[in-house]
Design goal:
The protein is α+β, with helices and mostly antiparallel strands and 246 residues long. It has helices at 35-48, 50-53, 61-73, 101-106, 138-141, 146-149, 158-170, 238-245, and strands spanning 21-22, 54-56, 80-82, 85-87, 93-95, 112-119, 122-129, 177-180, 183-185, 210-220, 227-237. Strands 1, 2, 6, 7, 8, 9, 10 and 11 form an eight-stranded antiparallel β-sheet that branches. The chain has a three-stranded antiparallel β-sheet with strand order 3-4-5, with no helix packed on it.
């Protein structure tokens, strides 16, 4: 069981969908108290289930290169770079492999990373490392636009879909934005893929033991219409959330 003990934001005050705010001076990526444990799980999943947690759909080569550069340029304190090697906060050394950007970044950061490229009128998921899916499958979403990615989320109405697409169109380079979600889960496992035809059963109000919340950051890559969507997953016991609320 891999859990955090605290959150860097107030999860008890939800925002109306889509709940976007400027990231401001906050770091693009976080290192929290579960870093070592989450990274061990990421490495296990990438070794045993790579085809399930890493996928691409003809991403633009320039966008991939810019993605790698941008992420490595914004590593938070605790990381060190020496030419083509990153030393991580847990002491691991990861070689930068330009031929495998998602595999490389998946070994460095707790965050899952999704590359969204404009294809026609919508942004399409063209590549990702997604080790900690919250009730969706990467293989069902890769190569599809935002509207398809959010099937079967009932709150994702046509109006919300239009607003989210406008956000992806409007996010500016150098001015990232962020949001969070909060869902109650019976199971604290980080890797929870589910088919869009088999949605997660609704939890019983007030009885579900774990809160799963994602810090989601959107930022535009330089010289590109591509947007990077990063997901940092926190899982806390209900009693920890109750303490934060008092």
């Amino acid at each position: 069981m891999i859990l955090q003990r605290c959150l860097p934001y107030d999860v008890m005050t939800p925002r109306p969908l889509p709940g976007i705010a400027p990231l401001g001076d906050s770091p693009w990526f976080l290192v929290d108290d579960a870093y070592a444990a989450q990274m061990a799980e990421r490495l296990r999943l990438m070794a045993s289930r790579r085809d399930d947690v890493i996928a691409t759909a003809d991403p633009d080569a320039k966008a991939l290169s810019k993605m790698m550069e941008a992420v490595l340029d914004h590593l938070p304190p605790g990381f060190a770079r020496s030419v083509d090697v990153i030393t991580c906060p847990d002491g691991r050394r990861v070689r930068i492999d330009a031929s495998d950007p998602f595999g490389t970044l998946g070994q460095i950061l707790e965050d899952d990373i999704c590359l969204m490229e404009k294809r026609g009128n919508e942004h399409v998921l063209t590549g990702a490392v997604l080790c900690f899916p919250a009730s969706w499958r990467l293989r069902e979403k890769i190569g599809h636009p935002l509207t398809h990615i959010h099937i079967p989320v009932k709150s994702y109405t046509d109006d919300i879909a239009r607003r989210v697409q406008r956000l992806f169109d409007g996010v500016r380079y150098g001015s990232p934005i962020w949001r969070f979600n909060a869902l109650w889960y019976d199971d604290p496992n980080l890797y929870q893929p589910r088919s869009e035809t088999e949605p997660r059963p609704l939890p019983k109000a007030g009885k579900t033991p774990f809160l799963r919340t994602e810090r989601q950051v959107l930022w535009r890559l330089p010289e590109s219409d591509a947007v990077l969507f990063t997901i940092h997953t926190f899982i806390l016991r209900r009693e920890m959330i109750d303490q934060l609320a008092t």
